[in-house]
Write a structure and sequence with these properties.
With about 180 residues, the chain is an alpha/beta fold. Helices cover about 45% and strands about 20% of the residues. The protein has one domain: Glutaredoxin. It is built from seven helices and seven strands. Strands 1-3-2-6-7 form a five-stranded mixed sheet. Helix 4 (about 70-80) packs parallel to helix 6. The longest helix is centred in the first third of the chain and has 23 residues, at about 1-25.
Length: about 180
């Protein structure tokens, strides 16, 4: 009888600890490299978002803390997009759609060719480039985006609403899950 009580208490404690761990578990976006996304897209196409940032960008860091860790946003991105974080000042060579991009200057705060290309030369950080399932650029949205700002954009891009309606019309009928 004594052992049954101890076993019951132990099971209850395990359940409580597991629930506490699950509730405190961080929700985060699963980030991929550009090369990984291209490979994954061949077998399982998805829309792609590329978060273009720099190490010195304060609003990029705020977005990392407040937007990308929001449970609704992180889950939606993970289930519907391939997400890439790209440092606009990276020194890495990037191959995208058979083109090779480099950072020519290799000096502090020099901009990578891929950032210049994907942002259409409009260098603002953070910026998010959205690509369709065929790796074609749909749009670039510059600036910090709170969860309530980015949620409708994610749905608009993922559901390909941009093919049939304007964002303004879509937004009027959008129902947030936040």
């Amino acid at each position: 009888m004594k052992y049954k009580k101890l076993a019951t208490i132990a099971i209850i404690l395990i359940i409580i600890i597991n629930n506490a761990y699950t509730q405190n578990k961080k929700h985060e976006v699963n980030w991929y490299t550009i090369e990984q996304v291209q490979s994954l897209s061949k077998n399982s196409p998805r829309a792609i978002l590329i978060d273009v940032y720099t190490e010195w960008c304060t609003w990029c860091k705020v977005m990392d803390k407040k937007t990308w860790t929001n449970p609704v946003i992180a889950d939606y991105v993970n289930n519907n997009f391939y997400a890439v974080k790209f440092d606009a000042e990276s020194l890495d060579t990037v191959i995208f759609k058979d083109y090779t991009f480099i950072n020519e200057n290799k000096t502090r705060r020099s901009t990578h060719q891929f950032a210049i290309a994907i942002l259409n030369e409009n260098l603002s950080y953070p910026s998010i480039a959205y690509l369709d399932k065929d790796l074609q650029l749909v749009t670039v949205i510059p600036g910090y985006q709170k969860p309530e700002d980015i949620e409708p954009i994610l749905v608009f891009i993922n559901e390909e609403k941009y093919k049939t309606t304007t964002y303004e019309k879509f937004f009027k009928e959008f129902k947030s899950k936040l």
